[in-house]
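hey can u check if this looks right to u? its 297 residues, i copy pasted from the old doc so theres a chance i mangled smth
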Amino acid sequence: MPTKAEYFKKFDELLSSVHAPIEADSIYSNFKVDSKTIKKHLRLYLDENTSAIGRVIGIYPSSDTVIRIAETICGRVSGANVSIINVECKRIIDEITLPKHAAFLATFFDQFADPVTAQVCIDKTKVISFLYEEYVGFVHEADNGLVSIAGTLNEKILIQGLRNIGLIEDKDFRKTGKNSEADLQVEHSGATTKILFCEVKSYAARERLLRGLQDIKSNEKVGVGFFKNPAEFNPERTTTLLDAHPRAIYMPNDTHSKLHRDSARQTTAQQDRLYRPLSDFFTDMRFFVKNGALPKY
């Protein structure tokens, strides 16, 4: 079986021999071991050779590597740039994802394209049928790696921000297991230990944020996410979320600024505003570690 160095040398040769991005499947065919083993080494290669990210279609580096790249471009994760970091991480992932989808879609649409203008004229029923019968299956098969990294990336951005502000992992905060309450737990170790349970979601709250908050038995809990749609937090929905008794819900500053006025002024049982800007999350968690409560807001 090849050594790590031999794998990396072969990857260098293959990538230097082509100018366009290369499919991971075409790399696998150059080895006499199973694709799972090659994929493992290819991920390690991308983690250590970040300039190659985007040149291999269908293989994602670790989420830690993606965040590290984003930090070199945007600065260390902080309250001031957390949303910018999120956008940059998405750009890096899209760079890997888009070519494969574009090629698959082009194969279909090129059948109907004008050879001169490249404009497409097609019956909409054919498009619907293609999207439903073929593209959905392609997405399911092609994006297994995307689902895996997307599920942890935003959470890890928050973890990196907590580290950067001086909190110590497994002492001041911890990532929980799959069957635990919340996704992150932040701990105050004073005369009495207090734990703040943080339910982390990505871009859409939907029912999942509410269910996650309801499943946490403690009232020391917050929701946090990169929520894009302020309408998900309309006045009626805000009343429902308040019934789950969170201490706060953090969202990107841009989303926060577009909340319905009646939603924005709703307060918790502690007489704090329910909705807080995501830029405050890291300093608020540091305050909780020191004081066992969130700062007034």
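Residues 161 and 259 are 25 Å apart (CA to CA).
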